[in-house]
UniProtKB/TrEMBL annotation:
Pfam families: RcnB. Keywords: Plasmid, Signal. This is Nickel/cobalt transporter regulator. InterPro entries: RcnB. The lineage of its organism: Bacteria, Pseudomonadati, Pseudomonadota, Alphaproteobacteria, Rhodobacterales. The keyword Signal applies. Residues 1-20 form the signal peptide.
Length: 103
């Protein structure tokens, strides 16, 4: 019985790292989302007057007619951040308008 208990403890300690996950506390279903480890509805919500962070990847939307958007005003442009379209000031990167979500 003593050897069985020792073997059981060793087996449990060896198998624990296998079931521990990826170590960052993120469930597997959320790890593959566009914004990793953030539940749906909790992703970034843009606020007017907020500066677009420097490290945030964004893409300029040049075909704004395709999305039914009006021509951007002087000194601003449309950018896509994840699936959000924002109108931002060119000089400062401040969010002037949050226009919606695209797929």
């Amino acid at each position: 019985m003593k050897y069985f208990s020792v073997a059981l403890v060793i087996a449990a300690s060896l198998s624990a790292p296998v079931f521990a996950g990826n170590g960052n506390g993120c469930p597997p279903g959320l790890a593959k989302k566009a914004v990793p480890c953030v539940p749906p509805g909790q992703a970034k919500k843009w606020m007017l007057g907020e500066r677009l962070p420097i490290r945030t990847p964004w893409y300029e939307v040049r075909d704004w007619e395709r999305f039914g958007l009006p021509e951007p005003l002087d000194g601003s442009r449309y950018v896509r951040v994840d699936n959000d379209i924002l109108r931002v000031a060119i000089a400062t990167g401040i969010v002037l308008e949050a226009l919606g979500v695209i797929d």
